[in-house]
């Protein structure tokens, strides 16, 4: 059984979708949900599915002993970032090299990097007049949104799409493709 942890900062729709995807799996178990925010609704979603949760605030997230001990206690072999807004410390990138994935709400390398998350991305895509947007699932590296791309999925945009419309289209792609891409990445371990 491969134990995975999901790192979240916000509402947790992707987190819950991943939990549901692996609920009946004989090979993969969501063993832990980690958030940097005690008010993250993702913690409530995880608790509803009887998934253990832990809050590691931003002030403690760079503490190698705290973070690694938490992951080792739950025998975590793979980490999924699902709307996690903190930079990942170098020690964790090294420890989980090619065993930690992130999803970005745009087609990298466009609209990535520091400050490019959530509505900021969709507003930038709209302002640029892009004809498409999408998601990028990539390995986590020591460069923000710079890890090797695993998969990209796109959706067409129209001139009348608002940033909120773009967000909804991108979210639909996330819900459809992130769990299956995680499953494929895990199969190669």
UniProtKB/TrEMBL annotation:
N(1)-(5-phospho-beta-D-ribosyl)glycinamide binds at residues 12-14. Pathway: Purine metabolism; IMP biosynthesis via de novo pathway; N(2)-formyl-N(1)-(5-phospho-D-ribosyl)glycinamide from N(1)-(5-phospho-D-ribosyl)glycinamide (10-formyl THF route): step 1/1. Its EC number is 2.1.2.2. One of its GO terms (molecular function) is phosphoribosylglycinamide formyltransferase activity. The keyword rRNA processing does not apply. It comes from the Bacteria. The active site is at 104 (proton donor). GO terms for biological process: 'de novo' IMP biosynthetic process. Keywords: Purine biosynthesis, Transferase. GO terms for cellular component: cytosol. It is an enzyme of class 2 (transferase). Gene3D superfamilies: Formyl transferase, N-terminal domain. (6R)-10-formyltetrahydrofolate binds at residues 58, 102. It catalyses: N(1)-(5-phospho-beta-D-ribosyl)glycinamide + (6R)-10-formyltetrahydrofolate = N(2)-formyl-N(1)-(5-phospho-beta-D-ribosyl)glycinamide + (6S)-5,6,7,8-tetrahydrofolate + H(+). Belongs to the GART family. HAMAP family: PurN. Catalyzes the transfer of a formyl group from 10-formyltetrahydrofolate to 5-phospho-ribosyl-glycinamide (GAR), producing 5-phospho-ribosyl-N-formylglycinamide (FGAR) and tetrahydrofolate. This is Phosphoribosylglycinamide formyltransferase. It comes from Leyella lascolaii. The gene is purN.
């Amino acid at each position: 059984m491969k134990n995975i942890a999901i790192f979240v900062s916000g509402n947790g729709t992707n987190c819950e979708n991943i939990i549901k995807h692996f609920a009946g799996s004989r090979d993969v178990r969501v063993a832990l949900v980690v958030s940097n925010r005690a008010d993250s609704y993702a913690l409530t979603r995880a608790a509803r599915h009887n998934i253990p949760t832990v809050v590691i605030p931003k002030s403690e997230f760079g503490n190698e002993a705290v973070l690694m001990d938490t992951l080792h206690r739950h025998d975590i072999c793979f980490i999924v970032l699902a709307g996690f807004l903190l930079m990942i410390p170098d020690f964790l990138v090294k420890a989980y090299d090619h065993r930690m994935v992130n999803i970005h709400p745009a087609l990298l390398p466009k609209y990535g990097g520091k400050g490019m998350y959530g509505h900021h991305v969709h507003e930038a895509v709209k302002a640029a007049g892009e004809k498409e947007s999408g998601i990028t699932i990539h390995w986590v590296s020591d460069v923000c949104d710079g890890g090797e791309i695993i998969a990209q999925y796109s959706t067409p945009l129209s001139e009348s799409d608002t940033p909120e419309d773009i967000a909804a289209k991108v979210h639909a792609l996330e819900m459809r493709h992130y769990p299956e891409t995680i499953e494929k990445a895990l199969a190669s371990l």
